[in-house]
UniProtKB/TrEMBL annotation:
The keyword Transferase applies. Its EC number is 2.7.13.3. Residues 100-315 form the Histidine kinase domain. It catalyses: ATP + protein L-histidine = ADP + protein N-phospho-L-histidine. One of its GO terms (molecular function) is ATP binding. This is histidine kinase. It comes from Geovibrio thiophilus.
Length: 323
């Protein structure tokens, strides 16, 4: 076995194995991982991984933790990374230098886009014009992914006083434009007039969760419940008091999710959709984390999914009482 020069420097385990499960190359991290696994009694790690890949079972558990397999080639041999899922959940900025990555990608992308524009303009045939249009559309998609990654790596929050009613109607309108067959049904705690949060970031987080619900369900009513959770409190250091948690539950009656999907929800780029980016939920989670909140999922296959968002209410004592 030789070590794989190309991936020697990445912080993840890289493997190349034959279709029979023989390890052909492994970087330093991969060798460490193999040693660890053999300590747990998994000696033929190549065959073990092959079984996972062939079974399309790309997340597996060991006594050390949960790992994900990211296949990058399956042409001749299987080439893939094995990544601890905790590492997946690390802030992206810790793993790679986002702004230089962005720059590296943006420059050629602009050239591609410009060239496609020229082809479209000069095309003498409809088919070529259509193809150029696809190139432009898809490069636009890459640009928007880059924008999302950038936002993820530099997300800051600024607290505003948000008028709940206008916030909700804006959410409702935003969804209605894109998903005309969905109705959002809000149930809001009666005396909740204002909340303190970063309006734009909270909006983005909730829209991302709502969009997924709409895409899962297709049509009909989606329930959104906004209340104060009576059971948990958040200690606000600035206000030097325990404040209550706002609880937002978004419930769809879509197809629900398999356990395997649920485990990977907050993994960057994980998507089950043809045109998905796999960034919606990680952006939502980042925004909610920045509010010192948390996000939970309850999903039953065949029944539907609840996303539950908690954020500290941070209401002024006066508005908490009078509201
Ligand atoms: N309400 C839901 N019902 C079923 N599956 C969901 C729901 N929300 C998220 N998912 C699953 O989580 C995946 C990741 O969601 P997300 O991060 O928003 O990326 P994207 O929507 O681009 O796929 C989706 O592809 C889908 O498989
Ligand atoms: Mg989404």
């Amino acid at each position: 076995m030789m070590s794989h020069k190309k991936f020697e420097d990445v912080p993840f385990a890289f493997f190349s194995i034959t279709k029979e499960g023989k390890v052909k190359s492994a970087n330093f991290q991969a060798e460490l991982l193999m040693d660890e696994m053999s300590a747990f009694g998994i000696r033929k790690f190549g065959e073990f991984l092959l079984g996972k890949i062939n079974g399309d079972n790309l997340v597996f558990k060991t006594p050390r933790g949960t790992y994900g397999i990211k296949v990058i080639s399956s042409r001749k041999d299987y080439e893939f990374f094995v990544i601890a899922l905790d590492e997946f959940n690390q802030p992206l900025g810790d793993i790679m230098d986002i702004s230089s990555l962005q720059h590296e990608i943006k420059t050629p992308l602009t050239v591609i886009d410009g060239t496609a524009q020229i082809i479209a303009a000069k095309a003498k045939n409809e088919y070529i014009e259509k193809c150029a249009g696809i190139i432009q559309k898809e490069s636009g998609r890459i640009k928007s992914i880059l924008g999302n990654i950038h936002m993820l790596s530099e997300m800051t929050v600024k607290f505003d006083e948000i008028d709940v009613e206008s916030f909700i109607s804006e959410l409702r309108d935003g969804i209605k434009i894109v998903y005309s067959r969905i109705d959002l049904r809000f149930r809001v705690l009666r005396n909740l007039r204002t909340i303190k949060a970063d309006r734009e970031k909270l909006f983005m987080a909730l829209s991302n969760i709502l969009k997924n619900a709409c895409e899962a369900q297709g049509e009909g009513d989606i329930e959104v419940e906004v209340t104060i959770d009576p059971t948990i409190k958040y200690m606000d250091k600035e206000m030097e008091k325990a404040c209550s948690m706002l609880r937002i539950v978004i419930s769809d009656s879509g197809p629900g999710m398999e356990e395997q999907v649920q485990e990977r929800l907050f993994t960057p780029f994980f998507t089950t959709k043809n045109k998905g980016t796999g960034l919606g939920l990680i952006i939502a989670k980042e925004a909610i984390d920045k509010h010192h909140g948390r996000i939970e999922v309850n999903s039953v296959k065949g029944k539907g999914t609840d996303f539950i968002v908690y954020i500290p209410s941070r209401m002024h004592p006066s508005s908490e009482k009078s509201g």
